Backbone:
């Protein structure tokens, strides 16, 4: 698996992400600065990590989304390349037009930093093949603007095409407003693009991959990707 | 040339910050406020003096970066 982790000014989760990619796949990712115009040759996974690019100025992810490297990511995604955006990465993917919709301020106006439960809606995507459909995983969130919305037509299309991959749920998989901590429409925590090769999600699976931390629930996502990309190689 | 771009949330888009301000005004005893929506103002200093050109440039700035047209409207104004 030849992965590339994008690095923008102000971002602070890129090393967690790189560490996880190395732990799970056994291969060191390339760190790619935002002013680059090309991804390293042979890249098969691009990860846009979390962490407050440009201090969240203007809108979360807005300035990073217009950086030179994102043109290369757009071309990579158009050819079917796998792109994963986590937290600020999800916001950047939405702002760059790679995913529809937008992440608004959390409904309760609070910054939320804690573990949440996610229901995995599908296991037949490159991102979720390490899980079973309907499985509930526990991973952390840390965001002030994770309240996903889009216009009604877009939401209907996302739901109709099975593009909602993760939803906030209770530990038993129940979808209930009490577990939807940021107020996202339909409790949406993660979506894929129409090609199914770009995933954006608010929670941080990269932080739950080691038993010492107390949960390895996030590992499945990276292990699944590593397996897909090993087979493709 | 001075110019101003105002960015506001489209109607129907939830504005939690506006709601919080609305509640604060009420608790401060500022009566008669029906609702509050929060937006952004960008004061921009432009080179040149061609108004039509300035408006086109400001629209480009708003479309490319200042506004997210999924959820926001914008208004450009050349102040002279």
Residues:
């Amino acid at each position: 698996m030849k992965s590339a982790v994008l690095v923008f000014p102000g971002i602070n989760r890129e090393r967690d992400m790189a560490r996880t990619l190395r732990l799970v796949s056994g291969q060191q990712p390339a760190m790619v600065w935002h002013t680059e115009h090309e991804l390293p040759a042979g890249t098969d996974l691009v990860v846009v990590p979390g962490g407050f690019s440009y201090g969240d100025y203007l809108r979360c992810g807005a300035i990073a989304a217009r950086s030179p490297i994102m043109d290369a990511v757009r071309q990579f995604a158009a050819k079917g390349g796998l792109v994963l955006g986590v937290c600020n990465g999800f916001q950047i993917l939405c702002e760059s037009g790679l995913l529809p919709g937008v992440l608004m301020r959390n409904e309760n106006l609070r910054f939320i930093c804690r573990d949440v439960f996610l229901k995995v809606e599908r296991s037949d995507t490159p991102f979720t093949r390490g899980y079973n459909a309907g499985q509930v995983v526990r991973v952390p969130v840390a965001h002030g603007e994770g309240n996903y919305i889009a216009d009604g037509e877009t939401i209907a299309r996302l739901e109709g095409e099975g593009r909602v991959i993760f939803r906030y749920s209770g530990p038993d998989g129940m979808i209930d407003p009490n577990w939807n901590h940021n107020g996202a429409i339909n409790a949406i925590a993660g979506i894929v693009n129409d090609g199914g090769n770009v995933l954006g999600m608010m929670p941080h699976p990269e932080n739950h991959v080691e038993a010492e931390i107390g949960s390895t629930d996030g590992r499945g996502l990276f292990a699944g990707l590593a397996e897909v990309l090993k087979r493709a190689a | 040339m001075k110019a101003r771009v105002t960015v506001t949330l489209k109607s129907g888009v939830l504005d939690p910050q506006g709601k919080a301000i609305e509640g604060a005004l009420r608790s401060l005893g500022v009566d008669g406020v029906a609702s509050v929506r929060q937006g952004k103002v960008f004061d921009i200093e432009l080179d040149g003096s061609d108004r039509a050109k300035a408006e086109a440039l400001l629209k480009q700035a708003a479309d490319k970066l200042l506004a997210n047209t999924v959820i926001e409207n914008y208004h450009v104004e050349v102040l002279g």
